Every structure is written in C-alpha cells, then in structure tokens.
Amino acid sequence: MTSQSQGIQQLLQAEKRAKDKLEEAKKRRGKRLKQAKEEAIAEIDHYRLQREKEFRNKQTNVMGSQGNLSAKIEEQTTETIRNLTSSYHKNMESMMKKLLNTVCDISPEVHPNFRHAV
Questions:
Q1: In total, how many domains does the chain have?
Q2: Does residue 107 sit within a domain?
Q3: What CA dihedral angle connects 68, 69, 71 and 73, to 10 degrees?
Q4: What is the pLDDT of residues 26-38, one digit of tens each?
Q5: CA dihedral 17, 19, 20, 23 (to 10 degrees)
Q6: Alpha-carbon distance 10 to 7, whole Å?
Q7: Within 10 Å of residue 22's Cβ, how many Cβ atoms?
Q8: C-alpha dihedral over 54, 55, 60, 61, to 10 degrees?
Q9: What are residue 108's phi and psi, to 5 degrees?
Q10: How does residue 110 score in pLDDT terms, banded at 50, 70 and 90?
Q11: Residue numbers of the domain that contains 67
Q12: I need a labelling partner for 10 at 20 to 30 A (CA). Which of 29, 37, 49, 58 fits?
C-alpha cells in the first residue's frame, strides 16, 4: 500500500508541477503579448511622426510659408483700415452738411399727378 500511496503522491506532485508550468507559461505568454503590444504602439507612433513630418514638408513646399502670408494679409488689412479712416475724416463734414440740407430744406410743391377737384 505504501508503494501505491507513493505512486499517488508522485502523480499528485507531477500534476502540481505541470500545473505550475502551465501557469508560468501563461504568465510568460501574457508578458510577451504585453511587450509585443508596447512595441507595436511604439512602432506605430514612430511611423505616424515620420509621416506627419513628410506631410508638413510637402505642405510647406506647396503652400509656401504661412507666416509670410499672414504678415502680408495683416499689412493689407492695416492699410485698408488706414485708407478708410482717412477717407471718413476727410468727407465727414461735407456729407453731414449735404445730409442736413437734404433733410431740413423742404420745398413744398404739388405733385404733377394731383388733380384739383372743381
């Protein structure tokens, strides 16, 4: 009977070792999957940065410098505002006089289509 219980004990120990090896293999597999995922994310980020850099280079080659265009537009806007302001100050007085004359000087007349009833 002792040999039988020793055999059972050996089987139980072998089963336990096999179970431990399986758990260890699962842990290594999980660790490797995690590592592979991190490597893939790093590779994707590197590729994305490379493509963005290429896109920016092509964009600047095609469109030119954005800062230069902004400066030109800002300068043109400032010049237009300056011209409108000077025109306003130059013509304001005469326009106010014309407007007041038109509103205040009323000459009453009979409309040509009016027929006087006899």
A1: 1
A2: no
A3: 170
A4: 999 999 999 999 9
A5: 160
A6: 5
A7: 10
A8: 70
A9: -70, 130
A10: confident
A11: 11-91
A12: 29
